[in-house]
Amino acid sequence: MNRAHNFNPGPAALPLEVLQKVQSELLDFAGTGMSILEVSHRSKDYEAVHNAAQSLMRELLGIPENYHILFLGGGASLQFSMVPMNLLGPGVSADYVITGAWSQKAFKEAKLVGNPRVAATTEEDGKFTRIPKQEELQLDPQARYVHITSNNTIFGTQWHTFPNTGNVPIVADMSSDFLWRPFDIKPFGLIYGGAQKNLGPAGVTVVIIRDDLLALCREDIPIILRFKTHAKDNSLYNTPPVFAIYIVKLVLEWIKEKGGLAWMEQENRAKAARIYGVIDSYPEFYRAPVAKDSRSFMNAVFRLPSEELENKFLEGAKAHRFVGLKGHRSVGGIRVSMYNYVPKSSVEELARYMEEFARAHA
Amino acid sequence: MNRAHNFNPGPAALPLEVLQKVQSELLDFAGTGMSILEVSHRSKDYEAVHNAAQSLMRELLGIPENYHILFLGGGASLQFSMVPMNLLGPGVSADYVITGAWSQKAFKEAKLVGNPRVAATTEEDGKFTRIPKQEELQLDPQARYVHITSNNTIFGTQWHTFPNTGNVPIVADMSSDFLWRPFDIKPFGLIYGGAQKNLGPAGVTVVIIRDDLLALCREDIPIILRFKTHAKDNSLYNTPPVFAIYIVKLVLEWIKEKGGLAWMEQENRAKAARIYGVIDSYPEFYRAPVAKDSRSFMNAVFRLPSEELENKFLEGAKAHRFVGLKGHRSVGGIRVSMYNYVPKSSVEELARYMEEFARAHA
Ligand SMILES: Cc1ncc(COP(=O)(O)O)c(C=O)c1O
Ligand SMILES: Cc1ncc(COP(=O)(O)O)c(C=O)c1O
């Protein structure tokens, strides 16, 4: 098998061992004589998967019992709406920190259902190249929550230290860096993320919500859009995306076997260090627009001296089976997405290609 | 491989040939060197799948160009809300025909966002055993739509002839009988259905919406909940449930190869005739509560003379690897779900078991 080097911004690479396991048991799941694609979501065999996915996540991230872990459909974009629908209302405000296109979308949806505020934005000439400093945040101590995007997939920036929001809980879209390393969950009231970058395949979104915030959730919105509905029924109010949750469980098992999130962080730091190392070794050739202290460990964004060279770079990448390197159309250039399950060996091969390319064309 | 006979009410059986194809290409999709679980939803290879799923569905059902086919996440239950959120509003009403628990849920969600009416209900003593007759429907000619549940999964009833609603478009939840046979789509303004019974795995919901109804959809609701958003971006506004859509495409190909929906209907009629044949041959033993002209071709519901015998029936079923026969808790007894991809041979084996069981215990 000739596996591609998958640098897709999402959906993204999964561990080969997980794919092999899925393949080997695809026709007969847990001796049921049925595929995991055919089992009832009300069966004991599936419930074991569902609960194991939750408890593995709880264990790996050290999530205390006062947080519920939900598995929902509809994508992270549905959470842009569900969060304010559940938590805002007359006389209730929330603070949004705008660090890129995804925060902008989240804010736009919040405005449609409530009265959110912008607590800070790092937009300059339509671009976002950094994370705001603590002192730039104009926080409302009465806000129900402060919304941040922990990693900005398109612009390649990432919060390295989460903001201090006092008593106001943080709500974070962690779609593109969930599980990249251990972190202290206590300041967070709610975390959400589409699985398709750092956790599993497209089709399931994880929502982690703290009891006190759940208690404040509205009960006059559609039943299916209430966090309370899904928390009460352990994400089995209606048919969950069974297969995607099954893969999430296998991925979490894989992380645990490898050494947990401490190991994961080490791997991710090594991969990012290699790519940014090449960029910094050829500062005239590879121009990274992002402020150094805001660089994303997941998505490295850079430009070459000309669009012609960028196209040549992407053209040459094909021969190496590097996939997904073209930058987002709003930014241009190159984006290297090196999520959790992109092997170090793929990153190494890309780094060498970058070095050779710079030497040949500088 | 010892395959179970899968009579699950959903998620349900899939064609073995489809599962084998999924298995064979799980590590390398279309020569990409990536799993279908890892490919970008913006890639050409995935778009070919997405578009093929749509055009196969269009071809099999004869769906004209003035209907959009959408693939959404969140389950059919999300459509209970999305439909009225998009289509109702001040001064706009809709008629709901209540034929079971799923119509009740749809109506409940509609009441939370608008002012729907009940056009008819067949509830008697908390049970639903029939589909209403045309003359029982109290239709409002000003209604924006008439909502029906085409097949009542729990109570085992099904609309054999769709109601005449004049100029008012029908909106149908076809979650449990979509694709069971060809039908004339013209009276329908919108059709929705979770894939996990008659179309594919859990994780994707199909919505088919006609241009004129789409034009009436609201634009002051959350962006992600607008049908217009998904129609405009061909269900690629955000990351769709890639894998589930891929399976839907394979299932549709399988139906086409087998002989299309005319063949599918023949198979389904033969399976239902076999099961109801046994029931009618032992009328003292198998008591079917449903009116004969309302019997579902998908879910046959019946009771035995005592709960003790029902338990014995279910116990004995295990040795034959019959799965999913227990009736819904609100109805009790036995439910045989014989959706599209339950093989005739499974139904034949179950029918023989029913005959033997009746003879042994009558
Ligand atoms: C940070 C972030 N949030 C949200 C989304 C949207 O996720 P989805 O496509 O699941 O709606 C993305 C997708 O790339 C993302 O990167
Ligand atoms: C007729 C009908 N409608 C809706 C649903 C709910 O579907 P979901 O679980 O995808 O929300 C079901 C599930 O069994 C059903 O049978």
How does this model look, in words?
Two copies of one chain form a homodimer. By secondary structure, chain A is α/β, with parallel strands linked by helices. Chain A has helices at 16-24, 44-61, 76-87, 101-113, 211-215, 227-232, 242-258, 260-281, 307-319, 344-361, and strands spanning 5-6, 67-72, 95-98, 117-121, 123-124, 127-128, 146-149, 151-152, 157-158, 170-173, 188-194, 205-210, 299-302, 322-323, 334-337. In chain A, the strands form five sheets. Chain A has a seven-stranded mixed beta sheet with strand order 2-12-11-10-7-3-4, sandwiched between helices. In chain A, a hairpin with a 2-residue loop joins strand 5 (123-124) and strand 6. In chain A, helix 1 packs across helix 7 and helix 7 (242-258) packs across helix 8 (260-281). The mean pLDDT of chain A is 97. The interface between A and B is large, with 67 and 67 residues. One pyridoxal-5'-phosphate is lined by residues 10, 75-77, 102, 149, 153, 173, 175-176, 194 of chain A.
Outline of this structure?
2 copies of one chain form a homodimer. By secondary structure, the first copy, chain A, is of the alpha/beta class.
Secondary structure elements and their pairing?
The structure is a homodimer of 362-residue chains.
Chain A: E1 5-6, H1 16-24, H2 44-61, E2 67-72, H3 76-87, E3 95-98, H4 101-113, E4 117-121, E5 123-124, E6 127-128, E7 146-149, E8 151-152, E9 157-158, E10 170-173, E11 188-194, E12 205-210, H5 211-215, H6 227-232, H7 242-258, H8 260-281, E13 299-302, H9 307-319, E14 322-323, E15 334-337, H10 344-361
Parallel strand pairs in A: 1-14, 3-4, 3-7, 7-10, 10-11
Antiparallel strand pairs in A: 2-12, 5-6, 8-9, 11-12, 13-15
The complex binds pyridoxal-5'-phosphate (2 copies).
The site of one pyridoxal-5'-phosphate has 11 residues of chain B, from α3.
Modified residues (N6-(pyridoxal phosphate)lysine) (chains A, B): 197
Cofactor (chains A, B): pyridoxal 5'-phosphate
GO molecular function (chains A, B): O-phospho-L-serine:2-oxoglutarate aminotransferase activity; pyridoxal phosphate binding
